[in-house]
Amino acid sequence: MFFVKKKPSVIAALEVGSHKVVAAVAEVREDGSLILRGVGEASSSGVRKGEVFDFQNAQKDIGSALEEAENNADVEIEEVFLSITGSHIKSHKVRVKTATDDEDHLVTDEQVRDLDEAAGEQAIPEDHAVLHELLQHYTLDGRTQTIKPVGLSAREIEADYLLIHGLQTRLETVVRCVMELDIQVKGVVLSSYATAQSFMNAEVKKQGAVVIDLGSGTSDYMLYIDGAVAHIGVLGVGGDHLTHDISLGLKLPYKRSEELKIRHGLLYPTGISQDDQVILERSTNNEERSIYLHSLAKIMYLRQREILELIKKDLDSLNLWDRINGGLHITGGASQVEGMQKLATDVFPVPVRLAHEFQLEGDQTYSRRPDLAGVLGVLRYARNYEITHPSVRGWSRVTESFSKMFSHIGLF
């Protein structure tokens, strides 16, 4: 995401994906609402499974997307908020506690801050850095749960957090790709956390819900219980793997397989006979080919079902399906294949919705682009950050350790 110094009411978001890099710029009104002013997109040639493997190419693609966004929004981008993903990102729960010390046993702001600091000091793998410390709830005297404990009476206060962290070197690399372009990274946000902000309201989160973002290189998912993030996951498989399977199964070049998937991809050959085919026209380097739609559907179905079942297996281990009353919401570029809702309904034990439309003001060209769910969510995350940290420059406290992590290489 970006914050533009010359126009403080403008923010920007950046998502560095395996298939493309996207930048988005929005204007923030006085009432906090957003108006989308411009989007920039560039093919991604230096990223695999959400992680940078070719620094120069990734940086060039980032620069192209930023430049296009600047031109479309008519702004100069100097600061950004950045979406982060990768199968190295993990989470675990921690519980910290403190006691009240006055005779009335009132919970104070200071004690809440102490709990926040204690959560940030919890151990994570030595080679990891914290992305988010997400509060789940406070518990007073081992009985009463709340998210607003200040002013209540209790002898002891416990707080449960979900710590989200990733490999330091992987995080450093993607941040440097941006900052060496003379663009300040103002904050980072986990991709699935940002995606949820693009379409999910507080009531659905309160009911309990799952968000799945099916991208080209990764499949990201997040679970909300009682309004708080309870679990996250990142699989290093996505739409690119469907393309790879098509290429192997039908003996086609990767590029032609991708075009076939986009134009004719399907998961169920409903209403299609065994003889129905599509013709891939002759090109400079390729002969004309006839492809049976039944064969295409079978290949795509098997891989896509495998991805969804891996997510379900992880969620099964939590034993929380009975608390997910807000359903399962699927978005992302790879979610657009025909038959996705039926397949997900067959796999998961809760109602399934495709999140393919977003409420936004401004350019409506992008309101029905599920492949932009992540970057649009980053804009909303940035807007909330600006409201809650109006005078803070740099990272918020929850990403303070991330800032410190980069200080030794001169990024902050």
Low-confidence stretches: 391-412
Percentage of residues in DSSP E strands: 25-35%
Helix content: 25-40%
Please state the average pLDDT score. Answer: 89
The count of β-strands is: 20
Structural class: alpha/beta
- How many H/I helical runs? 11
Give a verbal description of the structure.
By secondary structure, the chain is an alpha/beta fold. It is built from 11 helices and 20 strands. The strands form 5 sheets. Strands 1, 2, 3, 4, 7, 12 and 20 form a 7-stranded mixed sheet that branches. Strands 15-14-13-18-19 form a 5-stranded mixed sheet, with helices on both faces. Strands 8-11-9-10 form a 4-stranded antiparallel sheet. A hairpin with a 6-residue loop joins strand 1 and strand 2 (about 10-15). The relative contact order is 0.15.
How do the strands and helices of this protein lay out in sequence?
Blueprint: E1 2-3, E2 10-16, E3 20-28, E4 34-43, E5 47-48, E6 51-52, H1 55-73, E7 79-84, E8 90-99, H2 109-120, E9 128-140, E10 144-146, E11 156-167, H3 168-179, E12 184-190, H4 191-197, H5 202-207, E13 209-214, E14 219-225, E15 228-235, H6 239-250, H7 254-264, E16 277-280, E17 289-292, H8 293-316, E18 328-331, H9 340-347, E19 352-354, E20 361-362, H10 373-388, H11 400-407
Parallel strand pairs: 2-7, 4-20, 7-12, 13-18, 18-19
Antiparallel strand pairs: 1-2, 2-3, 3-4, 5-6, 8-11, 9-10, 9-11, 13-14, 14-15, 16-17
Helix pairs in contact: 1-3, 4-10, 6-7, 6-8
